[in-house]
Amino acid sequence: MNSKLLSNIARFVILIFLQVLILNNINFLGYINPYLYVLFILLYPFAGNQSLFLLLSFLLGLSIDIFEDSGGINAAACLVAAFARPNLLRFSFGISYDHQNIRLAFTPFGAKFSYVSLIVLIHHFVFFSLEIFSVNHILLILKKTLFSSIFSVVLILLSLTLFSRKHR
C-alpha cells in the first residue's frame, strides 16, 4: 500500500478516537470545546481525488456523530468545510494552490493561519448553528463559534508545529 494512504487512514482513525475519548470530555465555561478532528480536512492531500475527499469528510463527521449520538451535525459541518476547502486554499495560498505546489510545513505563518482559521470558523459555525438551530440564539451560536474556534485553531496550529516533518 501507498505510505500516504496509510498515513491518511491512520490520521483518520486516530483523530476520531482522540476526539471521542478525550477532547469531547473537555468543556471550558460551558461553551468552549476543542474539535481537533478538523485537522483531517486541513491535511488531506491538496491534489487528491475531491470526490473521495468529500466522502471521507462525511464519513469522518458521521463517525463522530455515531459516537456522540449527535444526529448528523458533525457530518454536515465536515461536508460544508470540505466543500469550501478549494476556495479557501485559493484565497489563502493564491497562485501556489493553482500550481499544486503547497507544502503546509513550509508555508508562511499568515497563509497557514488564515487557511486553518477560515476552515475551522466555517466548520464551527455550521456545527453550532445545527446544534442550537434557533435564530433567537444567534448570539450564543456566535459566542460558541468564536471561542471554540480560537481554542481549536490554537490546538491545531500547535499540533501542526509539533508533528510537522520539515525536510526538503
Supply the key terms.
168 residues, mainly alpha, 7 helices, 0% strand, globular
The gist of it:
Helices cover 70% and strands 0% of the residues.
Task: Walk me through this protein's architecture.
This protein has helices at residues 3-21, 38-43, 50-68, 73-93, 95-98, 109-132, 138-162. The chain has one domain (3-162). Helix 3 runs antiparallel to helix 4 (73-93) and helix 6 runs antiparallel to helix 7. The chain is globular. With 168 residues, the chain is mainly α. The two termini are 23 Å apart. 30% of the residues are buried.
Helices and strands in order:
Layout: H1 3-21, H2 38-43, H3 50-68, H4 73-93, H5 95-98, H6 109-132, H7 138-162
Name the poorly predicted regions: none
Mean pLDDT: 87
The share of residues in helices is: over 70%
Got a strand count? 0
Beta-strand percentage range = under 5%
Shape: globular
Instruction: Count structural domains.
Output: 1
- What is the alpha-carbon Rg in Å? 16 Å
Given the helix and strand composition, which structural class is it?
A: mainly alpha
